Amino acid sequence: MTENIIDISQLFSVNARLSELNTYLQKAQDLAGEGNDVILTGAGPVWLYLKIAHALHGKARTLRYRSPVTGDVLIFDHSPF
């Protein structure tokens, strides 16, 4: 499996806009790939993190949030046991 890191701040310039949400989601899905371990990081609005996490559910094997403060936080893990 591949580990793909998505820096949320790289999906938009200056401020994220709800009117561009579908564009951000498509970029994130393209960067995530299919069945990979994905890490979300970088500055961005909470609503964008939540929408991207929802969009990657069923597409990513695992999803983690990473920040200097929290370290890695597991959002979901769909790897086989």
Question: Can you walk through the features of this model?
Answer:
The chain is built from two helices and four strands. With 81 residues, the protein is of the alpha/beta class. The chain has one domain. The chain has a four-stranded mixed beta sheet, covered by helices on one side. α1 crosses α2 (46-56). The two termini are 15 Å apart. The relative contact order is 0.22. The model has no long low-confidence stretch (mean pLDDT 95).
Topology:
Layout: E1 3-7, H1 21-32, E2 37-41, H2 46-56, E3 62-67, E4 71-77
Parallel strand pairs: 1-2, 2-3
Antiparallel strand pairs: 3-4
Helix pairs in contact: 1-2
Q: Which whole number gives the mean pLDDT?
A: 95
Gyration radius over CA: 12 Å
Number of strands: 4
Q: Could you give the distance between the termini?
A: 15 Å
Provide the descriptors you would attach to this structure in a database record:
81 residues; alpha/beta; four-stranded mixed sheet; 28% strand; globular
